[in-house]
Amino acid sequence: MLLETVIGLEIHAELKTNTKIFCSCSTEFGAKPNENTCPICLGIPGTLPVLNEEVINLAIKAGRAVNCSINNYNKMDRKNYFYPDLSKNYQTSQYELPMCVNGKVDFNYEGKEVSVRINRIHIEEDAGKLVHLEDEPVSLIDYNRAGVPLVEIVTEPDLRSPGEAAEFMRELKAILEYAEISDCRMDQGSIRCDANISVRPYGQEEYGTKVEIKNINSFREVQKALEKEEIRQKELYQYGEEYKIKQETRRWDAGKGKTLTMRSKGEAHDYRYFPEPDLTPIIIHDNKVESLEKLLPEMPIEKRARFVQEYGLSEKDASIIIGSKALAKFYEEVVNEGANPKTASNYILGDLLRLLNANNMEADDIKISPKNLVQLFNIIEEGKISNTAGKEVFKEIFKSDRPVLDIIEEKGLSQISCSHEIEKFVDEVLNNNPKSIEDFKAGKTQAIGFLMGQVMKASKGKANPLVAKQMIEKKLKNMLIYNDFYLF
Ligand code: ADP
Ligand code: ZN
Ligand code: MG
């Protein structure tokens, strides 16, 4: 049976405000446990919330950034449930009147245009964090995060594969970053995703039973969790056991690489929603929306098109670069300093991303100054150092951003173009690799590449590759002519 996958996402993003949604406590990440708390965000009875206006402004910007209409009349509601990370015993959220509705996000996935409708965006407060101690029958609670403002962004079930869902999240993250709505630091939990997935026979209009997967905090994990759940559901269908797919919340266990039942999904009435009596309705005038909308910068989709057009990047390369605001900014600065756009993208997509990943860093943490990098490009271009040496210098400026000339001098990386010196390396390598010479004689020209690699290695990357290659080729050809008479 041909089955179609249906996915809808609910994304929580912490808003980039200095203070919490209903009190003046700081939202700074990394403070000591419970340092950023007060009677209001701790939910002490008798306290009263005051809504932070910046929360409304950022939510409106988020709405307009994804083409939503903004409701003029808004109110807050209480969502009641008991859990230790929520000391008020209710979350102040929005229920049937979310601030933003009916938006859409367009993006490119595997060469095709995808459009995902946004059902709603509402504002709410975050809960605290439970810290479970290993091997101890105790859990600790940190309320620093309680009362940090969030937007919850809910898509329609318009996504059709786990890969598409991950790409959507990348796009949404970029939008929120560009518009300075959220820091989107996945590593700090400032953007999180619940993913809903079901399958249905192709052509069937009605959706299948959906399962919600919680606890996912990276794009790669979102994709992996959805792929696993997709297989589980499709297998049940293949065996005619689709009735076993229950509407439930499953937890993604990244370590085990599978989803596990957490609880059966609650219904809205379980939360006993009612209007928040301690806050007045929020009236938003159209002119406020218009003036906030004017503050939105160039959005990722526009920047991508411009990078393709202006710098000749492929869609794919442009997508990766614009996927992070900081990376796109860095790229453009490097190009504006005079770098060849292609050289710049090669280095950024290759060495730079690799080093960032290896060091668990984000593009915001890049230390290299664009000027220094462009100088490195120029020196390589002029043939003063080899590409291999260039990569070594790059590693160094990635760490310290020291002037490239100092590094080249200190490490003695200037390229050797003198053929006498290069000949020493070439002869040494030919002497040590008789097998490659036999290969070459037998017609295997790949041997040249191998020998080149050895020469570059022997010269610590300093031999001018062009000179070295010509020399190897000449010597090998001579050997063919002299064949067995050649002695060296
Ligand atoms: P609930 O009432 O369970 O909260 P909603 O209709 O509000 O469900 O949708 C919550 C999320 O689940 C949305 O992101 C929506 O796109 C997604 N969703 C709804 N139905 C399905 C389905 N059959 N398959 C996959 N995702 C779905
Ligand atoms: Zn507080
Ligand atoms: Mg719902």
Care to describe what's here?
Residues 329-476 form the Asn/Gln amidotransferase domain. It comes from Terrisporobacter mayombei. This is Aspartyl/glutamyl-tRNA(Asn/Gln) amidotransferase subunit B. Helix 9 (370-381) runs antiparallel to helix 10 and helix 12 packs across helix 15. The chain has helices spanning 53-65, 162-178, 219-238, 286-293, 300-311, 315-322, 325-336, 341-358, 370-381, 387-400, 404-411, 419-432, 434-441, 446-458, 465-482; strands at residues 3-14, 69-70, 73-74, 77-80, 90-93, 100-109, 112-125, 129-132, 139-142, 149-155, 191-201, 211-216, 248-253, 258-264, 274-275, 282-283. The radius of gyration is 29 Å and the shape is elongated. A hairpin with a 4-residue loop joins strand 13 and strand 14 (258-264). The model has no long low-confidence stretch (mean pLDDT 92). With 488 residues, it is of the alpha+beta class. The strands form 4 sheets. A 9-stranded mixed sheet has the order 2-6-7-10-1-11-12-13-14. The protein folds into 3 domains: 3-289, no CATH class; 300-411, no CATH class; 419-482, Arc Repressor Mutant, subunit A (Orthogonal Bundle). Bound molecules: adenosine-5'-diphosphate, zinc ion and magnesium ion. Residues 6-10, 154-157, 196-198, 207-208, 210 line the site of adenosine-5'-diphosphate. The site of zinc ion has 8 residues, from loops.
What's the helix and strand layout?
Blueprint: E1 3-14, H1 53-65, E2 69-70, E3 73-74, E4 77-80, E5 90-93, E6 100-109, E7 112-125, E8 129-132, E9 139-142, E10 149-155, H2 162-178, E11 191-201, E12 211-216, H3 219-238, E13 248-253, E14 258-264, E15 274-275, E16 282-283, H4 286-293, H5 300-311, H6 315-322, H7 325-336, H8 341-358, H9 370-381, H10 387-400, H11 404-411, H12 419-432, H13 434-441, H14 446-458, H15 465-482
Parallel strand pairs: 12-13
Antiparallel strand pairs: 1-10, 1-11, 2-6, 3-16, 4-5, 4-15, 6-7, 7-10, 8-9, 11-12, 13-14
Helix pairs in contact: 2-3, 5-6, 7-8, 7-9, 9-10, 12-14, 12-15, 13-14, 14-15
Bound molecules: adenosine-5'-diphosphate, zinc ion (ZN) and magnesium ion.
